[in-house]
Amino acid sequence: MTLLAKPAYDAVVFDCDGVLVDSERLAVEVTHRIVADLGWETDVESLGRLLIGCSSEFFLATLEEHLGRKLEPGWDAPYAGWREDAFAGRLEVIPGIVAALDGIDLPWAVASNSRTARIRSSLATVGLLDRFEGRICSAEDEANGKPAPDVYLSAARLLGVAPGRCIAVDDSPTGVLAAQRAGMFVLAFADQFTAKDFPSGDRVRVFTDMRELPRLVAELRRPSAR
């Protein structure tokens, strides 16, 4: 008698920025204007590779290093409106993500380095908050942000699924490494900033079109006969 093994994966954990909402492009554009105003001359692509997936603490330390001076607390307050204006007027979903979510019949959660308020605001702006309500994990609630696995492990606990039975979807090398360290299989979504910089491994698969996500998840879940 041939028995079918149970599906290999039981849940999906999504990063937010650059996976659900197309915020990273806007964030890089605004941050490029801010650092130029402060006196750091760099190009958008180099800044993007630095920013995507990094913590605010890492960014501040890098910014101060390039400026050659310490920044006072509240240094970024004058720039708050720049980001708010950009996000309010131009923030959109990642192309293909709505159909992808419709095509995945698994429980899911968000695991992001962003603050909870920002995650919720971004998801609400693009109409996705209802899909993730009660299943949002932020690194601000963890001892360590990505690339530490903490926020991904919290998402797995929230879903009641072992980390090794979760599929993570992330678009930054930092996030991919965090999910790897959590023991998850990672679908790495490549964009203009991260396409060539993902950590390698037999539990990482790179893809470039969000419309392919349901098929990739289904393939990973397909049980093998035994």
Q: What this model shows, in words?
A:
This protein is of the alpha/beta class and 226 residues long. The protein folds into 2 domains: 11-22 and 91-221, Rossmann fold, CATH 3.40.50.1000; 24-90, DNA polymerase, domain 1. It has helices spanning 23-38, 44-51, 56-67, 80-90, 97-102, 116-125, 129-132, 150-159, 173-182, 213-221; strands spanning 11-14, 108-112, 136-138, 166-170, 185-189, 204-207. Strands 3-2-1-4-5-6 form a 6-stranded parallel sheet, sandwiched between helices. Helix 9 links the parallel strand 4 and strand 5 (185-189). Helix 1 crosses helix 2 (44-51) and helix 1 runs antiparallel to helix 4 (80-90). The longest helix has 16 residues, at 23-38. The radius of gyration is 18 Å and the shape is globular. It holds the Pfam family Hydrolase.
